[in-house]
Amino acid sequence: MAAIAPQRRSTRSGIGLAPTALLLLGALYCLFPVSWLLIASSKSPGELFTTPTLAFGTGFLSNVTDLFAYRDGVFWLWMGNTLLYAGGGALLSTAVSAISGYALAKYRFPGRKLIFNLLIGGILVPAVVLAIPQYLLFSKIGLADTYWAVLLPQILHPYSVYLARIYATAAIPDSLLEAGRIDGASEGRLLGRLALPLMVPGLVTIFLFQFVAIWNNFLLPFIMLGDDGKFPLTVGLYTLLAAGANQPSLYNLILTGTLLSIIPLIALFLTMQRYWKTDLSSGAVK
Amino acid sequence: MRATRLGAVLAAALTATLTIGGCGSSEPTGGSEAAATSPAAPQGPVKLTYWTWAPNMDKIVAVWNKDHPDIQITVSKQAGGDDAAAKFLTAAKAGNPPDLVQAEYQHLPSFIAADAVADLKAETAAIKGEFGEGIWGLVTLGTEAVYAVPQDSGPMMLFYRQDLFDKHGLQVPKTWQEYGEAARTLRKKDPKAYLGTFSSKDPGAFTGLAQQAGAQWWSISGESWKVNVADEPTKKVADFWGGLVKEGAIDDTPFFTPEWNKALNDGKLLTWPSAVWAPGVLSSNAPKAKGKWAVAPLPQWNAGENFSGFWGGSSVAVSAKTPNKAAAAQFATWINTDPKALDLLVKEAAIYPAAAKAQAALGAAPDYFANQPDFWQQAATVSAGARGFTFGPNVGVTYNAFKDGFDKALQDGTSFSDAVQAMHEATVADMRKSGFTLAS
């Protein structure tokens, strides 16, 4: 027995190295583009294609000033729009997912299975496929080219509802709800006072998911919006890239704009990390 | 019943003309200016939206808005290129297009086929003479209708590194044969440098070169389209470049890639057959080489000729669904023919105007070409020799087939004229599928 134990430990550490190396590779894979972006955005237009890829340039501040001056600071307008779409959309989406997930998890009603199966089916349909039909529908009701055209389609997100339902099933004991009912709490009170607090870690996950998804969304706002004053950053920066055949792309402004646009995402993740971690571990146990 | 799309277009054009006729009878004809003084909408100013991607267009429109309180234009800056065309077509189909739209010449036919743009024949009768015949053909497609007002154009010229030409003792090639020989000579003198590159990602450039050789890929005869992408001139151009690439005399790095930018900066690429807007691209992508480039007419296929083609350029079209067609047409005419507007287009939007008067009035050479004071005179001469061309309704398909075919030809080392044949077949198949009538 004594001979086996150390041996086992050594094999475990041997196996342990491989995942660590793999994870390191993965981290490198994820972080390299970000560091490239950081380096590239520090280059002035003249340096961008002439200096080595991984050498820092000298133009970061002038890039930032140029970007903020571009079309009288339209960058800030786009940043504000993106915040509105991502923040508002994620909040609304989380609310809808929480309520529907809770209802699907804790109430028995006819059609529940059907709705759930439809949701699962909905997860399989990529949002990209829906963008054009949604545009045609929104045009019909006169909502195309409005803020709602970008917000509304992203509120109902099947995967988030699915997550909320799974989470509610696991996190809210039926007995607790039963006890609440016996004490005379209304269904609304049960949801607000009992269910939602228990679901918070799951809801944070959903919020983050949706926030990032909407922040990065390109196709839907690209199709829905005609007025460049309502563009989010993704579509706005794209107008700098595809500036027309006879205009040079404003690479340095795009790179700087992209770098600035990921800062809020990083900040959000750092501040929400606690909840995120709680959720991952609690999911593992349940 | 085989209703053709072209037939539908023509019918739509006919109705549009009748409507204009109806409006025109209550007003004195010939005046887009007349329409301005008697606005169609009595309540408040007419509000129009304008999709464009030309830089600083909002500033130019602000000048119009100040002078025309009754017609207020809102610029919405879009992403340019093929996506812009697709977006406009989708918006037109959904029923909420902008009133005015920037339309690249190669995409205009697809707008016409989708009934998305209005016929401006009556509104533009007075300004027809302002444009060269080659340019005007791009907005009429050789029909009686006028679907847009030309804004800018891209006559092609040969840009070359004067300092390096001198260094290696190269002559500016007058014909493509000389170009090929210069390419071989350069390879011997500097094995790291190339005289030029063939880009399999830029169908626009290839189309321009084919135009120079006299290609006519599409034409309208009566109610049907004639398609001949794989005509003799096009095959000749393709095989010329294919041969040079195959023997290693020129490179095959696509334009506008980081590698290409680097080659320009390092002086490893000595020529670029490009359009008049090249100074903007060069100054931003190869700032180091400022003052070292010069411009000459494109090499010719037969010595003594003076032909060129167009790469790029766009027009301003009026949406078929706009309720304020007269006002929109008035603006489209103003921005592309009024001296004040043209001046702004050149200075603010940095475009090469399509209007002949404005081309002649261009002053100092672009900063990047300060060493060549006659830059604009050269451009005007070249522009006059640019050959006419009619684009078809599915240029996107043809261009994609170009990219696929030439990518493959470069990869497998197969013949370029086969790629041209594939372009032709893809174009014809797509037009048949879409219900166009093709004359054989």
Order of helices and strands of chain A: HHHHHHHHHHHHH
Number of strands of chain A: 0
User: Which CATH C-level class of chain A is it?
Assistant: Mainly Alpha
Shape-level CATH architecture of the largest domain in chain B = 3-Layer(aba) Sandwich
Mean pLDDT of chain A: 87
CATH homologous superfamily annotation of chain A? MetI-like
Overview of this structure, please?
- Helix content of chain A is 77%, strand content 0%.
- Chain A has a single domain, classed as MetI-like (MetI-like fold, Orthogonal Bundle), CATH 1.10.3720.
- The longest helix of chain A is centred in the first third of the chain and has 37 residues, at 4-40.
- Chain A has 13 helices and no strands.
- By secondary structure, chain A is mostly helical.
- With 440 residues, chain B is α/β, with parallel strands linked by helices.
- Helices cover 47% and strands 14% of the residues of chain B.
- Chain B is built from 19 helices and ten strands.
- In chain B, helix 18 packs antiparallel against helix 19.
- Classes of the chains: A mainly alpha (286), B alpha/beta (440).
- The interface between A and B is large, with 31 and 50 residues.
Please outline what is shown here.
The complex is a heterodimer of chains A (286) and B (440). Chain A is mainly alpha-helical and 286 residues long.
Fold blueprint:
The complex is a heterodimer of chains A (286) and B (440).
Chain A: H1 4-40, H2 45-48, H3 60-69, H4 74-106, H5 112-124, H6 127-140, H7 147-151, H8 158-171, H9 174-182, H10 187-216, H11 219-224, H12 233-241, H13 251-285
Chain B: H1 5-26, H2 32-37, E1 46-52, H3 57-67, E2 71-77, H4 82-94, E3 100-104, H5 108-113, H6 121-124, H7 133-140, E4 149-161, H8 162-168, H9 176-189, H10 203-213, E5 218-221, E6 224-227, H11 232-246, H12 258-266, E7 271-275, H13 278-285, E8 293-297, E9 310-318, H14 325-337, H15 339-347, H16 356-360, H17 375-384, H18 395-412, H19 416-433, E10 438-439
Parallel strand pairs in B: 1-2, 1-3, 6-10
Antiparallel strand pairs in B: 3-9, 4-7, 4-8, 4-9, 5-6
